[in-house]
Amino acid sequence: MIDSDALRTFACFAEDANLSRAAKRLHLSQPAVHAHVKRLEASLGVPLYRRSGRSLTLTPEGVEVAAFARESAERTRELVLRLRGEPDDGRVVLAAGAGALLHVLGDAIRHFTRTHAGSLEVRTCDGPSALAAVREGTAHVGVTVLENDEAAAGLDVHAVTTVPQVLVVPRAHPLARRRGIHLAHLAGERLVMPPPGRPQRLALDVAFAARTIRPRVAAVATGWELVVHLVSVGAGIAIVNACVALPRALVARPLRELPSQRYVAFVRGRPKAAAAELVRAIVDRGDAWKGR
């Protein structure tokens, strides 16, 4: 049997893998927290954390146990409230990137918040962080762009929508008169690009290099809204996902040489009812952006 006290202690420790901060949060001594974690490790027969330099990091088994501990605490709380006849806040945590939240998930979020009696907590984070949050049990549902399902191994993955990449230009720009754009047309053009190292920038760098095109980077920006604004004020032209809403002064032209972006929603196995409800709303309304 798993020691419930040790499990609760480990869930607190797993928040930042710091024994002293966990001790303060739990009003215990640091040796007591350490003893609880070691007792849990001994009962499970696996290491739950390891030392990495001067810090501690959870092992994959530790991540799994922390998620189980958080899920168990949440389900226990729901059961107690139900037995007492007291209302539950029905809290659901959604982790997703700002672009997905603003341009893909709006209709789903609107439907869910209107029909769900509980609360929705939205956390903005990149894809790897959203995957980690769901795995660790700090978020119930995650949404990100995923090229293949390997990165989401162990999670239940649901297809949401597929979004082409497009070139955004002012209506008066010469490229606005073309029905289709090739990357070669961008040679010499001033481009608004994502920062180096970002997933889209890495993909664009590879695509340009494969065609021996040297892009002229006029501005670097993070976030579709800022990128589109910079195009609006004449800083350059940009490549964005087709789901991004554009002002009337700008137009989008297809870039068929670039792959479409596949958005997925993911949850841990056996999600709570409200989380499953949110996933259904996201999947059912995943293509709503096409109607804009």
Briefly characterize the structure.
The protein has 10 helices and 12 strands. It has helices at 4-13, 19-26, 30-44, 60-84, 98-103, 106-115, 127-136, 199-210, 224-232, 273-284, and strands spanning 49-52, 55-58, 92-96, 120-124, 141-145, 156-163, 165-170, 190-193, 216-220, 237-241, 250-254, 261-267.
Explain how this protein is built:
- This protein has 292 residues and is α/β, with parallel strands linked by helices.
- The chain has 3 domains: 4-81, Winged helix-like DNA-binding domain superfamily/Winged helix DNA-binding domain (Arc Repressor Mutant, subunit A); 89-161 and 261-291, Periplasmic binding protein-like II (D-Maltodextrin-Binding Protein, domain 2, 3-Layer(aba) Sandwich), CATH 3.40.190; 165-254, Periplasmic binding protein-like II (D-Maltodextrin-Binding Protein, domain 2, 3-Layer(aba) Sandwich).
- It is built from 10 helices and 12 strands.
- It has helices at 4-13, 19-26, 30-44, 60-84, 98-103, 106-115, 127-136, 199-210, 224-232, 273-284; strands at residues 49-52, 55-58, 92-96, 120-124, 141-145, 156-163, 165-170, 190-193, 216-220, 237-241, 250-254, 261-267.
- Strands 4-3-5-12-6 form a 5-stranded mixed β-sheet, sandwiched between helices. A 5-stranded mixed β-sheet has the order 9-8-10-7-11, covered by helices on one side. The chain has a two-stranded antiparallel ribbon with strand order 1-2.
- Helix 1 crosses helix 3.
- The longest helix has 25 residues, at 60-84.
- It is elongated.
- The relative contact order is 0.14.
- The mean pLDDT is 90.
Looking at the overall shape, the CATH architecture of the largest domain is 3-Layer(aba) Sandwich
What share of residues are in beta strands? 15-25%
Q: How much helix is in the residues? A: 40-55%
Over all CA atoms, what is the radius of gyration? 23 Å
- The end-to-end span amounts to 54 Å
The shape, in one word, is: elongated
Q: Can you list the strand order of the major beta sheet?
A: 4-3-5-12-6
- Kindly state the number of beta strands: 12
- Stretches where pLDDT is under 50 for at least 5 consecutive residues are none
Total tally of structural domains: 3
Helical element count? 10
Helix-strand pattern: HHHEEHEHHEHEEEEHEHEEEH
Would you tell me the overall average pLDDT?
Answer: 90
- CATH third-level topology of the largest domain: D-Maltodextrin-Binding Protein, domain 2
The biggest sheet, with number of strands, parallel, antiparallel or mixed sense and barrel status, is: 5 strands, mixed
